[in-house]
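Shift notes (night). Ran SERine Proteinase INhibitor while the centrifuge was going.
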Amino acid sequence: MSSNDSIDLILNLTKSLHNFGSNLLLCPYSLLTALSMLIAGSRDKTREELLQVLYSKSLSDKEIVPFLEQIGRKHREFLESHKNVWHQASLVYCRNDVMLDALFARSLSQMFMAQTKQLDFHPNKSGDAVRVINQDVCKETNGRIEQIVSQLDPNFALLLIDAIHFKDIWAKQFEQSKSHMASFRLSDGRTIVETWMMQKTEIFNYCHYESLNVKAIQLPYQSNQKLAMLILLPSNDTGDDDNGDNDNQPKNSAIKTLVNRMNLGHLKAILDEMIATTPQKVELSLPRFKICSTHHQLIEHFRQLGIRSIFDQCQANLSAMLTNVANNNPKLYVSEVIQKAMIEVNEQGTEAMAITKVSVRNKRSAEFIEEMICDRPFMFMIIQSDPLNVLFSGILENPLLS
Ligand SMILES: *[C@@H]1O[C@H](CO)[C@@H](O)[C@H](O)[C@H]1NC(C)=O
Ligand SMILES: *[C@@H]1O[C@H](CO)[C@@H](O)[C@H](O)[C@H]1NC(C)=O
Ligand SMILES: *[C@@H]1O[C@H](CO)[C@@H](O)[C@H](O)[C@H]1NC(C)=O
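Came back to this:
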């Protein structure tokens, strides 16, 4: 799902989500999958902003379908080549009184291989819907993420959920017996914690990248030589001194400086340098770690990056998502984008999962009740839908006549 065009976005998002002193985990692939599904359902400025920010593209109406097909093809190739270790499910839940536009539904199923379900979001029934969604998500993440929704807003028209589970072992595993407790200095530069450190001396793709003053290493996974964990370690004295000579102000930490400076150019240069350098014997110490992150405020970050109209009740144009059957032209917008992600890294390998949830809401005022008083002649039919059959058809002109 990610292409070169999206890497800077991913790095900017990482920068913008990073809080001093806190761990962070984001699954851009899941986020991009979910947001790319929205491209297929959007029009006008809403679509332009998504394309520009996610893929640095500006496309005409005619170019959209081929572009989405190309994204879909790459996505399927990716899934195919990593199917033993990467499991991804795109799930679309529709409120039972809305109907997906046929073209949008086809894009979802063919390009993103999404599964679609209709559910009752009415408050009295939504317990069942919540259960169905959480069960699906739990299944798709191998039981690791048990709850992504706790209640449903009856104004949600659809929920797009993308779930990923990844599990692979290192091509070169760490020996359990070499792991030991060791010190780890936090980014404030002073606090030292004791942590479980894994150790391995081995030939790795490695380089010292001068421009950012980082050491870089790739730990390949066993399933596929194209999959690896890339670790970038800043030297411990590379923080920016933003505050001139004022020693009372803390220096920017080395990690913050790295995150701020990182971009596509540097990333490519690091990977190129690794290829150019012969693999080296490295004594690697790496803590075992586990991170669980929940990002509730992604909308704010996307706004800053230039995706705006889709989150605005008045400006969003998601008119390619639904056909106007039960709802008279519902006005749709995206009211939340949430991601939960987890990773566990140990001597054997890595297990990670992510869930991205995008809620598409329509402004349907709960107080407003449609009125239909049949106090004049009308036409009626008894029909079967899908396939459509008209079983009875009639006109009532006078209820007193039989
Ligand atoms: C959305 O865009 C389409 C295509 O340009 C346009 O016909 C439609 O009126 C727009 N709808 C809304 C609600 O803005
Ligand atoms: C929903 O539940 C409330 C309270 O239990 C009840 O008053 C209302 O009639 C129910 N509505 C529907 C549509 O079932
Ligand atoms: C950097 O790390 C080395 C070795 O751990 C240590 O001796 C040195 O004091 C550290 N420098 C700073 C600025 O923390």
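Residues 124 surround 2-acetamido-2-deoxy-beta-D-glucopyranose (ligand 2) (CB under 6 Å). The chain is about 30% helix and 30% strand.
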